[in-house]
Amino acid sequence: MGLTTTKENESKCIDSNNNLDHEKRIKQQNYDVMLPKNEYRFMKTIRRWERDVVGFETPLRWINIFLISTYHLVYALCVTYCFMHRIHIPLISYVHGLFFGWMAGFGVTGGVHRYWCHRSYKAKLPLQIILLVCYSMAGQNTIYEWVRDHRVHHKYSETSADPHNANRGFFFAHVGWLMMKKHPDVVRKGKVVDMSDIENDPLVRFHTKYFLFFKLAFCYIIPILISHYVFGDSWLMTIYTETVIRVLMSLHYTWSVNSFAHMWGNKPYDKSIMPVENWVVSLFALGEGWHNYHHTFPWDYKAAEFGNHMNATSYIIDIFAKIGWAYDLKKASPSLVHAVASRKGDLSIKRNVK
Ligand SMILES: [Zn+2]
Ligand SMILES: [Zn+2]
Questions:
Q1: How many A from CA of 113 to the centre of ligand 2?
Q2: Rounded to an integer, what distance in angstroms lies between the CA atom of residue 270 and that of residue 346?
């Protein structure tokens, strides 16, 4: 009897070792598929280290790592310099920095997210142009890339096909995914997700064609010139506030939706998914933290059940709706929300935000 048990344990152990080897081989195959073609020879050693020693699932994108790290380093150096030399940032710099930050934020939340990606409302041409300019101020990817990645994120949340799969940890979901090549499943699903509306949108096509111009002009050059010539900031101050603080903070607010709002909070609408309701994220990301609701009803223009509570984006869309530039706003009916929440949600959570 004892001998049989030992043999069974041994065979289980061999099976689990085989499974681990199999998983490792699959990971290594995925990694190899994603290796950039025609790399410099010196990269071979680095790639071996990435794959075999550290065990990364996909190759690192060293240029992005360098750029993102440099941005943070410059930010830290500027803060230290201002602190050491007792340099005070004038109130007016905070005010217009915040205003530009909100414009950029609205371009992301009300523009590329709720309008272009989810089509949760319709917009007349003047509003589309405003959304385009605001989005360009955020300094992010093309609208096409943003929408494709986000549609894949919704469809394959928390799987290997999710570009910022929160199961791979906080850092990966927040910013790490931008520092690595995409998982083969993300690339595969990204190729088949329906993007016909975006491909046929003339304004988006125009933006994609002149993407670099839009990004440089609206994210950097124009805000810098306005800060200097209109608000009288010194060149040093305006470059610091407009290219470092504002851009970096707005990026982190966007990233926090993929990380914090997939990890910490409650789930009143669907407890089987990872996205959560997180009011702190909502505060900073203009209403995008009501993420359990948003993943349950992604077509809802408020991306939240209740009014405009910590939801600056909905508030602004409502203003545009009043003047007729935003219309056909989609909203889940209270009875539908109640029915879904009663069936799938965590009933211990009170949905009482007004
Ligand atoms: Zn999400
Ligand atoms: Zn979404």
A1: 6
A2: 7
Ligand nearest to the CA of 287: 2
pLDDT of residue 117: 97
* Nearest Cα to Cα of residue 135 among 127, 124, 143, 126: 143
Chain segment 43-83, per-residue pLDDT in tens: 888 888 878 777 787 888 999 999 999 989 988 888 888 88
Please tell me whether residues 39 and 102 are part of one structural domain.
no
Q: How far is the CA of 200 from the centre of ligand 1 (A)?
A: 26
Distance 260 CA to ligand 1 centre (A): 10
Does 354 score more than 50 pLDDT? no
Which residue segment(s) compose the domain that 55 sits in?
A: 14-59
pLDDT of residue 308: 67
232 plus 293 within the same structural domain? yes
100 C-alpha to ligand 2 centroid (Å):
23
**Structural domain includes residue 6:** no
pLDDT in tens, 194-225: 999 999 999 999 999 999 999 999 999 999 99
* Mean pLDDT, residues 295-321 taken together: 91
CA of 181 to the centre of ligand 1 (A): 20
Does the structure show a pLDDT above 60 at 13?
no
Question: What predicted TM-score, i.e. pTM, was given to this entire model?
Answer: 0.86
Ligand nearest to the CA of 274: 1
Report the alpha-carbon distance of residue 220 to residue 241 in Å, rounded.
11
Separation of CA 185 and ligand 2 centre (Å): 20
Match 């073609």 to its residue by tokens. Answer: 37
